[in-house]
Amino acid sequence: MTLPHAERVREPSHHPPRERLLRFARGEAWRTERIVMEAHLFHCDACAGIVANERVPFDDGFRTGVVKAPGSAVGVARAATAPAFDLVWRKVEARARVRWPREAAVLPPSVLAELEPAERWSWTPLWPSGTRFTVLAREPAAGTELYLVYYGKASAFPRHHHLQPEDNVILAGGYKSGVVPADGSADDQVLTGDWVLGVPGTSHSPRTGPEEECWCLSQVFVGGSKLETFHGKFQAWLDAWEARRERLR
Ligand SMILES: [Zn+2]
Q1: What's the CA-to-centroid distance between 195 and ligand 1, angstroms?
Q2: Which residue, among 144, 136, 84, 142, has the nearest Cα to 111 in the 3D structure?
Q3: Ligand 1 centre from 233 Cα, in Å?
Q4: Is the Cβ–Cβ distance between 126 and 137 less than 8 Å?
Q5: What number does CATH give the domain 18-248?
Q6: Cα(50) to centroid of ligand 1, in Å?
Q7: Residues 70-102: pLDDT tens digits?
Q8: Mean pLDDT of the region 156-165
């Protein structure tokens, strides 16, 4: 297994819906939604441009002040209010002390900045599919979780049916999404930076080619998808595992 670094290698060809970009720009996206959007924007100039045009200042504990830089035109500076500054500084200090798991290299800096510092992640292998995932963040108020998913060569994520939307951003490598593209073409290959939308009522089983690996960031709603393989046995196992995780939390 190779461990790629977050790197812009192409302009994505699949993008999030425009209304989602605007939600993000207005500061209305919840945390996991924001993080998955940050991952796409790292790779996508076109969407970053839309967000930059729409972004409005919102009260996040910072205030915007206009300052005159010596000898230059009027500039805009953001000054943190004292409590916000303390909070940010504590986070910076905590991050500096932590050695992130090796796999964190695939996450853009803007994504890492949104995560709680972690020295290890707990991976769940989806045997025998060749895929595994770890939970990076939870947003209980929205009922969402954020996963980092790894696909080995010639692997397939178990076929699952979407009850609720699923947002995926390819961080490195690629896979065949199993989702019919919006333009109706037969090519479902997605690559670094692409946004893959799991639409409610659809099912798919993303799969990598013989020489292809993939790292993917996914925002899912808890209970928002049902696995269809092994006559539901796998789902039962996953539900039991989820219940155990709930007890340990
Ligand atoms: Zn885009």
Answers
A1: 7
A2: 136
A3: 37
A4: no
A5: 2.60.120.10
A6: 9
A7: 444 443 344 445 666 777 777 777 777 778 999
A8: 87
